[in-house]
Amino acid sequence: MARVTVEDCIDKIPNRYDLVLIAAQRAKDIESGSRILVDRDNDKNSVVALREISENKVSIEDLQKSLVMGLQKYVEVEEPEDEEVEILSAEKELSDLDETFSSDMLSDEDISNSMQIHGGDDDNFDLEDASDIDFDDDTDFGDDDFSDESDDFE
Q1: Residues with Cβ < 8 Å from 5, sequence gap 6 or more?
Q2: Terminus of the chain with fewer CB atoms < 10 Å: N or C?
Q3: 61, 25 contact by CB (below 8 A)
Q4: How many Å apart are CA 50 and CA 52, to the nearest integer?
């Protein structure tokens, strides 16, 4: 197969400098083990990269991104401002407190099971239930002022 030249790739990437950089990045990718998308025909990696670009076998945008990532020495990481750090730490403390209290609290089901609900026929007092009550207890309940003799309310 005939060798590819830079002129064959100019219609894909108009800037020659960008073309050389992108082709070099693709050649590095091939060298590091990336799969070749065209027949090698005993060509070097740089020629294979140019052939892939000229035949639209590779994504130029992806190559540009990997080129930029490979050339970056320092990746700027946005650090949160002091207020954001305080808010995040407060939210973490609140979530820790929520976890602590949620394990100590009773569920709605536990609360409803422990509550006595009276209604219907259960409100009537059964005399058989009163057999345990000791009416002979001489405990003074402080009702000396209310005797049976004072029926003035008639």
Answers
A1: 50
A2: C
A3: no
A4: 5
**Contact yes or no for 23/13 (Cβ under 8 A):** no
As a three-state string, the secondary structure of 90-110 is HHHHHHHHHHHHHHHCCCHHH
Q: Which amino acid is at 112?
A: S
What is the separation of C-alpha 85 from the centre of its chain, rounded to a whole number of angstroms?
Answer: 18
Burial state string for 74-88 with b = 16 or more CB within 10 A and e = fewer than 16: eeeeeeeeeeeeeee
3-state secondary structure of 42: coil
Query: What is the CATH architecture of 6-71?
Result: Alpha-Beta Complex (3.90)
Residue type present at position 35: R
pLDDT value of position 25: 92
pTM of the predicted model as reported, rounded to 2 decimal places: 0.46
Q: List the domain boundaries for the chain.
A: 6-71
**Identity at 36, one-letter amino acid code:** I
| 12, 26 contact by CB (below 8 A) | no
pLDDT digits (tens, 9 = 90+) for 30-60: 999 999 999 888 889 999 999 999 998 999 9
